[in-house]
Amino acid sequence: MGDDEITPSLEAAYAVETPDENRRLYAEWASSYEETFVAAKEYRYHLHVADTLVAHVRPAGPTLDVGCGTGVVGVALRERGVSEIDGVDISPEMLEQAAKKGVYRQLIEADLTIGMGVADDTYAAVASAGTFTHGHLPPEPIRELIRVTMPGGRCAIGVNASHFEDLGFAAWLEAAVDEGLIGPYELTRRKVYEGSDPSTPDDMSDIVGFSVR
Q1: Position 26 in a domain
Q2: Rounded to whole angstroms, how far apart are CA atoms 53 and 126?
Q3: Beta strands in the chain (DSSP E)
Q4: What pLDDT, in 10s, does the model give residues 134-184?
Q5: CATH of the domain at 65
Q6: Pairwise CA distance, residues 92 & 24, whole Å
Q7: What are the start-end ranges of the E strands in 33-78?
Q8: Considering 13, 101, 156, 199, which has the largest number of Cβ atoms within 10 A of its Cβ?
Q9: Pairing, β 149-160 against β 204-211
Q10: 161 - beta bridge partners?
Q11: Rg from Cα positions in the chain
């Protein structure tokens, strides 16, 4: 992505190739993201991830919202009774928007491919929507999310359905089970947008739910 290709859009987000391109895109998009994307496309992904996280039990401790963006997942979690929420994102401009929501205990700027600088076993739960997708993260950074989750803690991680298949997320998760990092995982497919076509993988999300061992 060159400097002349910065117009914020879903297509531009899918096309980013480096952390710096990611930061540049979201610096431009942060102030209009909820109007031009969340509202305009009737985005529902964040609601499904929040529902998946609390389906079994409300987290008894702090929850981390990974790739929190402007804070729509945090708001959904708060509406579902989650009271202690931290957010992490690569974009400082998105974090500025998230801070305005008033639902986060703290916000962390970090590149998940490098690490978060958060202590092991810090969180009772982890949620993520829209971060594991084209142009963003492959499966390996899930290991960092497992590291910061307490034993017995719950994770709900959304992965673009096409991305899930193309980058081998299922094989990675099976290896994590075999390694004893996580328990058996559940996989549910949900619409990303209100009008998503279930036959179009890019309009669907595979939400992975599992407990950390």
Answers
A1: no
A2: 8
A3: 63-66, 85-89, 106-109, 123-132, 149-160, 186-191, 204-211
A4: 888 999 999 999 999 999 999 999 999 999 999 999 999 999 999 999 999
A5: 3.40.50.150
A6: 10
A7: 63-66
A8: 156
A9: antiparallel
A10: none
A11: 16
Q: How far apart are CA 82 and CA 96, in angstroms?
A: 21
Range of the domain at 191: 43-211
Cα 82 from chain centroid? Answer: 16
| Cα 44 from Cα 156, distance rounded (Å) | 15
Q: Do the domain assignments include residue 136?
A: yes
State the amino acid at position 158 in one-letter form. Answer: G
65 within domain boundaries: yes
The region of weakest confidence among 28-32, 33-37, 57-61, 147-151 is 57-61
Burial tier of 52 (Cβ tally within 10 Å: 0-12, 13-18, 19+): buried
**Could you give the CA distance from residue 148 to residue 65 in angstroms, rounded to a whole number?**
12
- Output the six-digit token pair for 28: 């431009």
Mean pLDDT, range 44-73, rounded to an integer: 94
